[in-house]
Design brief:
Layout: H1 4-28, E1 31-37, H2 42-60, E2 64-70, E3 75-79, E4 82-86, H3 91-110, H4 113-127, H5 133-143, H6 148-158, H7 161-177, E5 186-189, E6 192-193, H8 197-208
Length: 220
């Protein structure tokens, strides 16, 4: 027998269940994007500022899980408690890589999980417009809404053993992907390196996400 008073709760429960399942499917459909870059590399600067950041902020952020790996073609040696680093574009780049590693770490440990991706793109997208990583830290913190404590923590981290440890962590991830790294930046989408993504990131992403032809940025 039909019971009107029971129909609404049952229908509501069905709707909630459908919504949860639909959200789970959307989450599973996100593309995992690893970006292996270095802070003073012109090609890295081009990709992050002209491809990744505009695509992320232009309508693709809900379709992406971005992992930024600031290391590139760097290397290191350990001597006791000391870590000696070497980078393709010199010591300033090594320090820049540590600044980015520390900034990413700080964001991951102080920002709500749902906001972390956006805040990492905010900071790194801004910082990669400059060839002076230290100046970019302060300038981008100010323009992107990070407080003084963020700057202080990143500075302390990048000049300490913690910075060395994070530098090596990103180095190990990079070498686990490819050693030596053939090209910087290397863009890896769902485990597959994509050379095309370097100059057409939006197009590559749109071709891989379900229903990509219905996403406004993909129609441009």
């Amino acid at each position: 027998m039909y019971h009107p008073n029971r129909a609404v709760p049952i229908a509501f429960a069905a709707l909630v269940a459908f919504s949860c399942c639909f959200a789970a499917v959307l989450g599973e459909d996100k593309l995992n994007v690893d970006v292996y870059y270095e802070t003073l590399c012109p090609d890295s600067m081009y990709f992050i500022t002209k491809q990744l950041t505009p695509a992320f902020n232009g309508g693709l952020k809900d379709h992406l899980n971005v992992n930024l790996v600031p290391f590139g073609k760097a290397s290191w040696t350990e001597e006791g408690n000391n870590v000696h680093s070497s980078c393709q574009h010199g010591p300033m780049e090594c320090h820049g890589n540590k600044i980015h590693a520390c900034a990413i770490y700080e964001i991951e440990n102080t920002v709500k999980p749902e906001d972390q991706q956006q805040r990492m793109i905010d900071f790194v997208g801004c910082a990669m417009t400059s060839f002076d990583p230290e100046a970019a830290l302060k300038q981008c913190a100010q323009t992107q809404g990070f407080n003084d404590e963020f700057v202080k923590n990143v500075e302390n981290c990048s000049n300490s053993k913690q910075g060395d440890d994070l530098f090596m962590k990103h180095g190990q991830k990079t070498k686990g992907f490819q050693s030596p790294l053939e090209f910087v930046p290397s863009i890896v989408i769902n485990g597959e390196k994509s050379s095309e993504a370097f100059r057409n990131f939006t197009g590559v992403v749109c071709s891989q996400i379900p229903g990509g032809n219905q996403v406004p940025i993909c129609k441009q």
